[in-house]
Amino acid sequence: MHKHISEQYDLELSQIRDTLMEMAGLVEVQVNNACTSLVNHDMELAEEVRDVESRLNQFEVDLDDRCVSIIAKRQPTAGDLRAIVSVMKVITDLERIGDEADRIAKMALELADSEKPEHQYAEFRAIHANVMKMLKRTLDAFARLDVESALRVFEDDENIDRAYNKIVRQSIETMQSNPQEVERSVSLMWAARALERIGDHAKNISEYVIYQVKGHDVRHSDVAGEMLE
């Protein structure tokens, strides 16, 4: 009987993780499409991103319900409980990444009727590419419970923060030298801020990988830094 219950629990948790990775795949597409719509002034793609947002919200609700149900029915302990808690936290961060993609799509719609700048959003495209790599790394780390890859994400996050700060400085300089660029520069800063926040959520997911595998809560601590050394 115990073996049967254990196998059923493993199956339910596996199905939840599979659905979570489906949600993660959709989140990656959303982020990429939102950024692409901004740099290409593609209103149709931006609208598509905004329309899909409701699907991510439904993923969050359904997965949360399934996690609560498995806790109530199976009453998992120790490592099993950590696994479910980690999944629930990842669900929340994925939904918030979706919110940030929606925010970028909103900025894309605001910029759609304006002319593209001479630099063709070079710095934004660079941070977009790096965020996509970071997001892929953290989701792969979660799927494989790979602590080493999860730790690399902490370094990625520092690079994203520096790139975001560079965009802010450049945008401020542009607004000071050319008041006509204020509206575009503000929208671009908000979009870059959304990418920086996506990096923060990706880092959170990596923290949950470490928590699930090692049992260490590395939030607000130097434990992750010590593990990198």
Give structural attributes.
229 residues; mainly alpha; Methane Monooxygenase Hydroxylase, Chain G, domain 1; elongated
Provide the CATH top-level class. Mainly Alpha
Strand content: under 5%
Shape: elongated
N-to-C series of helices and strands: HHHHHHH
Helix content: over 70%
Structure, explained:
This protein has about 230 residues and is an all-alpha fold. The protein has one domain: Phosphate transport system protein phou homolog 2, domain 2 (Methane Monooxygenase Hydroxylase, Chain G, domain 1). The protein contains seven helices and no strands. The protein has helices at about 1-40, 45-75, 80-110, 120-145, 145-175, 180-215, 225-229. The longest helix is centred in the first third of the chain and has 39 residues, at about 1-40. The termini are far apart. The mean pLDDT is about 90.
Blueprint of the fold:
Layout: H1 2-40, H2 43-74, H3 78-111, H4 122-144, H5 147-177, H6 182-214, H7 223-228
Helix pairs in contact: 1-2, 1-3, 1-4, 2-3, 3-6, 4-5, 4-6, 5-6
Short description, anyone?
The chain is an all-alpha fold and 229 residues long. Helices cover 86% and strands 0% of the residues.
